[in-house]
Amino acid sequence: MDEKPADTSFMYPVFPGTTLVGRAYLNSVFWEAFQSAKIAYAVDRRFARRGIATASPRELSRIAFTEQNLHCLQGEVLTDIAASRHVVENGGFNHCGTAPDYLRIDGPWQTHELHQLPNSAWDGSPANSLP
Fold first, then answer.
1. How far apart are CA 11 and CA 27, in angstroms?
2. How high does pLDDT run on average in the chain?
3. 53 and 86 Cβ atoms separated by less than 8 Å
């Protein structure tokens, strides 16, 4: 069995054409019993409302499920940002809870909605090798 780090992150540049417009992340990637990761993404505001952010969770789930053989992904969004909720829900993620004082952003601890996407095709086999 390949030895894998317990906690790993991967960053993927977002190029919808020839211009770098953002980054997408698989964070806190855990294999073994958990086989899960958290997603994050950031897109330059100048490229908002073009479907670029919406495509990020879909592409991250494709990578996580087909290349990494992960079982589940989680996305966290601030409770007052409807656009972020829309992005993860359009990516197939389902609301699974609310976490008070979850992340510290711009000073105060902020409450987040937790969203989850299980890999319905996961076959229980060991995770693939690191990319």
1. 8
2. 87
3. no
The model's pLDDT over 8-50, given as tens digits with 9 standing for 90+, comes to 889 998 888 888 999 999 999 988 788 999 999 988 988 888 8
**Could you give the CA distance from residue 84 to residue 78 in angstroms, rounded to a whole number?**
8
Structure tokens at 53: 């952010």
Residues ≥6 apart with Cβ < 8 Å to 114: 74, 75, 76, 95, 96, 97, 98, 99
pLDDT of residue 49: 83
Task: For residues 49 and 83, give the distance between their C-alpha atoms in angstroms, rounded to a whole number.
Answer: 10
Higher pLDDT, 33 or 72: 72
**Residue whose structure tokens are 């979850």:** 102
Laid out side by side, the sheet with 109-118 consists of 8-14, 22-30, 36-43, 72-78, 109-118, 94-104
Higher-scoring residue by pLDDT: 5, 33? 33
Paired tokens of 10: 């991967």
What is the Cα–Cα distance from 60 to 41, expressed in whole angstroms?
9
CA atoms of 87 and 117, how far apart (whole Å): 13
Residues 6+ positions from 93 with CB-CB distance below 8 Å = 57, 73, 75, 115, 116, 117
